[in-house]
Amino acid sequence: MKLPSRRELIARIKDIRKAIRSHRDAKGDDRCHLDDYKVWASISESAWTPIKLPPYNEMMATCLEFYTHRRAETADPVPEGAIRSPRFWNVDLDQMTTKQLKSELSRLTKAITRHWVIVPRPRTTADDRELYAMLPEKMPADFRLPPEEEFLGEALAPHAGCPSFYRSHAGCPKEKSCNVHQWGPCHKK
Question: Staple partner for 83: which of 112, 126, 137, 138, CB 3.0–4.6 Å?
Fold first, then answer.
């Protein structure tokens, strides 16, 4: 088996960091439990990624759990020493030896695995913060979500809310997979 080159290691680390950053930087009703799958898939092609939404009651139960355990009233503060400019978020990789790059890849993979296999309790903002802390820039997340009636209900239907998102995929053909990371329908009939 061919060992990855330094260039391949850096590219792999950047891809994983990009997935974590995308998860961290989602705001408002763009934050969703379905985004977890993108992060988990960044380390494992075998990570289960839904190709269809689960039954409505199951989906809404997961949305409620997300709303209950993964939101905050205020955005996290920017800590002292945070690297604010994205231009500098990966410069640390240029200074690392191949051994250090392998260690960094392992560290990120372990952090995502911990985020993935949380049982039997619900995943929380603390779990997300632990994952985001693996990034060198130490930028905060904004866990604020819209009011419950907008996020879980019909207050802004059909343009926002979990029920509207679910209904948007109702028109997706049964024989094709959905992109559950965007509003549907995914395919034209």
Answer: 137
Chain segment 113-151, per-residue pLDDT in tens: 999 999 899 999 999 999 999 999 999 999 999 999 999
The answer to whether residue 189 scores a pLDDT higher than 90 is: no
Using alpha carbons, list the distances in angstroms from residue 154 to 32, 66, 131: 17, 17, 32
Burial annotation 152-181 (CB, 10 A radius, 16+ → b, else e): bbeeeeeebbbbebbbbbeebeeeeebebe
- CA gap 64, 108 in Å, rounded: 28
Spatial separation of the C-alpha atoms in residues 100 and 95, rounded to whole Å: 9
3-state secondary structure 133-174: CCCCCCCCCCCCCCCHHHHCCCCCCCCCCHHHHHHHCCCCCC
pLDDT tens for each residue of 134-143: 999 999 999 9
Residue ranges of the domains in the chain?
A: 6-49+70-145
Residue linked to tokens 């494992």: 44
Question: Closest Cα partner for 181 from 12, 6, 30, 18?
Answer: 30
Reference 41, options 180, 143, 183, 147; nearest CA is 180
Closest C-alpha among 41, 135, 134 to residue 90: 135
Q: Dihedrals φ, ψ of 13, to 5°?
A: -60, -45
